[in-house]
């Protein structure tokens, strides 16, 4: 169902107002920031830039730690590995590679190459045993075993346009969701020998080009879906059921925000 345009929320008198505490200048050139992610313990944060580099800083003091360089095209996603490998940072790029970096030395420690004609728009690490790397490419979902960088599957029949998002589902690591410019969300089972025919479990048709997806709820059964035309939909991915749609999300967010106009946001 569509949600009617809402009036601005009243701002209570006791609302805490936030001010700028610190700022970081990443460069003195024309570069700009694509993504910022913190480590789990917030001891550092990684910043991907339009210079095809990733820089690391202290989120508290703003101290510059170092730079990871190697990509030759736009970096589309960066991701810390988490508690199991806290010093490992991974990145994917339109140069067709997923690169892994040691944030203590800022050196590349491994690389997965999808091929010179491929762009990688998104990646995710998971699978039943936690050893799979999935990548969203040009109408394909590719999977590798990160232990030996061997490609184990190419899912090429489920999407007909760029795959903008891939995510292994939290607490169901054998399930993989992909989303595409073709407006489809596909749910795959990644156990056994993976292929389109036997492992595509269900498809959700959002109806327009998909930019970002994510999970929430106690069992992560809810899927939020942000489109390129700035609509937001909430789905029950297990049931394939659309629960609510929000149109013109940027305007709604701006009306509920008492500072500058919202230029970018991410549902959380």
Automatic annotation (TrEMBL):
This is Transducin/WD40 repeat protein. WD repeats lie at residues 68-111. Transmembrane segments: none annotated. The gene is 11420988. Keywords: Repeat, WD repeat. InterPro entries: WD40/YVTN_repeat-like_dom_sf (IPR015943), WD40_repeat_CS (IPR019775), WD40_repeat_dom_sf (IPR036322), WD40_rpt (IPR001680), WDR89 (IPR039328). The keyword Nuclease does not apply.
């Amino acid at each position: 169902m569509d949600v009617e345009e809402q009036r601005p929320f009243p701002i209570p008198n006791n609302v805490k107002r936030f001010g700028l505490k610190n700022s970081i200048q990443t460069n003195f050139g024309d570069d700009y920031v694509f993504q910022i992610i913190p480590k789990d313990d917030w001891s550092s944060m990684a910043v991907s830039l339009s210079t095809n580099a990733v820089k690391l800083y202290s989120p508290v003091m703003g101290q510059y730690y170092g730079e990871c360089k190697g990509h030759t095209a736009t970096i589309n996603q960066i991701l810390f590995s988490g508690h199991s490998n806290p010093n490992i940072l991974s990145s994917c790029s339109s140069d067709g590679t997923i690169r892994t970096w040691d944030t203590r030395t800022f050196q590349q420690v491994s690389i997965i190459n999808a091929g010179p004609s491929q762009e990688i728009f998104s990646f995710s690490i998971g699978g039943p045993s936690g050893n799979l790397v999935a990548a969203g490419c040009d109408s394909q979902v590719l999977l590798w075993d990160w232990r030996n960088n061997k490609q184990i599957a190419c899912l090429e029949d489920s999407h007909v346009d760029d795959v903008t998002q891939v995510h292994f589902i939290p607490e169901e690591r054998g399930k993989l969701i992909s989303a595409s410019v073709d407006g489809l969300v596909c749910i795959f089972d990644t156990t056994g020998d993976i292929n389109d025919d036997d492992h595509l479990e269900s498809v959700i048709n959002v109806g327009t080009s998909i930019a970002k997806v994510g999970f929430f709820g106690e069992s992560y059964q809810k899927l939020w879906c942000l489109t390129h035309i700035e609509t937001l939909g909430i789905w029950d991915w297990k049931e394939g059921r659309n629960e609510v749609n929000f149109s013109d999300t940027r305007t709604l967010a701006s009306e509920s925000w008492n500072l500058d106009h919202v230029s970018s946001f991410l549902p959380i």
